[in-house]
Amino acid sequence: TATPVASEAEPTETPVDLPTSTPEAVVATATPVATAAPANAPAGLRMRSPEYGMQAFVWWRPEVSSRDMQLVRDAGFGWVKVNFGWRDIEGAGKGQFDWSRTDRIVQQAEDVGIDVVVRVDHQPQWAGGAFPTNGPPTNPKDLADFFTAMVSRYRGRIRAYEVWNEPNLSREWGGQLPDPTGYVALLKRCYQAIKAADPNAMVISAGLSPTGSWTETARPDDWYLETMYVAMGGSSAGYFDVLGAHGAGFKVSPETDPAVVAADPALGGHRSMCFRRVEDLHAIMARNGEGNKQIALLEFGWTSDPRPDSPYNWHAVSEQTKADYLVRAYQYAKANWSPWMGLMSLIYICDNEWTENDEQYWWAITDPGWPQFHPRPAYNALKAMAK
Predict the structure, then answer these.
(1) CA distance 273 to 220
(2) pLDDT tens per residue across span 378-387
(3) Is the model's pLDDT at 34 over the cut of 70?
(4) Which helix H or strand E contains 72, and what residues bound it?
(5) d(C-alpha 215, C-alpha 251), whole Å
(6) Strand partners, 38
(7) Where are the alpha helices (DSSP H) in 179-220?
(8) Cα-to-chain-centroid distance, residue 212
(9) How far is Cα of residue 20 from the mean position of the Cα atoms in its chain?
C-alpha cells in the first residue's frame, strides 16, 4: 500500500507547533471533464443546528473508503469531511489534472447518501509557497483557478469547500509568520471562483487552530479572526458563508467554562484549551454584526494518547471518557449553540494505515483494520446518540 501524502494525514490542532513531514505527491494527468449535477435541489447555505459529521481518510483504497463512508452514515451522521490535496490533483503542472480519485470519492459519497465537505490545501511544487511545506501559493490566482476547475466539475455534488487549514500556524502557512491579511486576500479570490462555478456551494473559511500562543510559529485564533474582520472591512460578505473553527477538548469535559480552564494551569491555563473556545470566536462575529452567521466546527475531539513522551499525553482521557465527552459535546451544542452552530465534524474514522505510533491514532473513534471493523466505545456511543 502506498504511503499517504501529508494532505491525507495531518496532525490535530494543538498549541504545540510540531513539525510535519510532507512526502512527494503522486501525480498523474487527465483532461478535466465536467460531470452533470444531480437532479435533486441544492441543500442551501444554511444548516441545521447542529449537523453531524466525521472526518475519514478515503484517498487510497476504494474498498476502505466505501466502508468508512457507510460507517458515517450508519451512525446517523450526514457529512463526511475529506482532504483533497491540491498537489495530488494538479501536481504535474498547471492545468494538468488527475481527477481519478476525487471522481470516485464523490460518487461513493453520493451512493452512500451523505454530504461532503472538502478541505483544500497542500499546494503543488509548481505553485511555490515554500513547497514541500504546506503554504499559500506564490500567485493566489493559481489556487482560485484550481477551485474553478474543481467546483465546475463537481457542481451540485460537493456541498461545501474549506479553503485552506489552520493558517494561524506557520507550519500551515509555508513556514512564514501567520498572516491573516494575506489569508483574507487568498480567501476572497477563492470565494469568487467557487461562487462563479457553483453559487450553491458553501464556502467555509479555514479552520483555525485553538491556541493562545504568540510566537514566530503561531498566532492566537481569536486575534487572527479579529484581524481577519479588520482586513475584510468588518463584514465577511464576499469572503465566506460559514466560519471554520477547530475545537479540541483537551483535558476537560465539553461543558467546562473557558474561564475555569484559563484560571488553572493544570488544565492548560488558557481559554483556548477547551471545547467551548468556539464561543469566543462567535462573540467576535457578534461584535461585527454577524452573530447569526454559522460556524462549522471542522475538527474536534479528545485524545487517549498514553505515550509518556507525547506532547498530547498531558490531556489524554480514556476511550470511555472520550465516548462520553463526544456525545455530551453534541448535546451541549444542540442545547446552547443554536442557531449559529452548523456542521460539527469530529475526528476521526481511523486511517487504515495508522498505528499506535501515530499521534492521530489516539484521537480516532475506530481502530484500523480491513476487512474487519473495530469500533471504539465512542463510535458505538455516537451511533446510539439521539440526533
Answers:
(1) 12
(2) 999 999 999 9
(3) no
(4) helix 62-74
(5) 23
(6) none
(7) 180-197
(8) 20
(9) 17
Q: Is the pLDDT of residue 35 over 80?
A: no
What's the pLDDT score for residue 43? 63
- Burial letters for 314-328: b for 16+ Cβ neighbours within 10 Å, e otherwise? ebbbeeebbbbbbbb
Q: Are the C-beta atoms of 170 and 127 separated by less than 8 Å?
A: no
- Among 363, 349, 383, 361, smallest CA distance to 81 is for 349
**For residue 72, which phi and psi values (nearest 5 degrees)?**
-60, -50
Task: Find out whether 104 and 116 touch, Cβ atoms under 8 Å.
Answer: no
Q: Show the DSSP H helices in 213-362 as ranges.
A: 221-231, 258-262, 278-287, 319-336
Cut 0.85: pTM above it: yes
**pLDDT at site 210:** 97
Distances 197 to 29, 118, 158, 164, 241 between C-alpha atoms, Å? 22, 16, 12, 18, 15
| Contact predicate 344/244, CB 8 Å | no
The answer to whether the CB of 144 falls within 8 A of the CB of 151 is no
Spatial CA neighbour of 237 closest among 184, 280, 158: 184
- What are the DSSP calls for 335-361, one per residue? HHSTTTEEEEEES-SPPTT--TTSGGG
The length of the chain in residues reads: 387
Please tell me the distance from the alpha carbon of residue 317 to that of residue 315, in angstroms, as a whole number: 7
Contact 379, 359 (CB under 8 A): no
Mean per-residue pLDDT for 364-370? 96
pLDDT (mean) for 153-174: 98
- In whole numbers, what is the pLDDT of the chain averaged over residues? 90
Per-residue CA distances from 272 to 149, 221, 260, 261 (Å): 37, 8, 11, 8
- 107 Cβ neighbours under 8 A, 6+ residues apart: none
Alpha carbons within 13 angstroms on the beta-carbon side of residue 302 total: 27
Distance of alpha carbon 220 from alpha carbon 263, whole angstroms:
18
In this predicted structure, what is the pLDDT of residue 44? Answer: 72
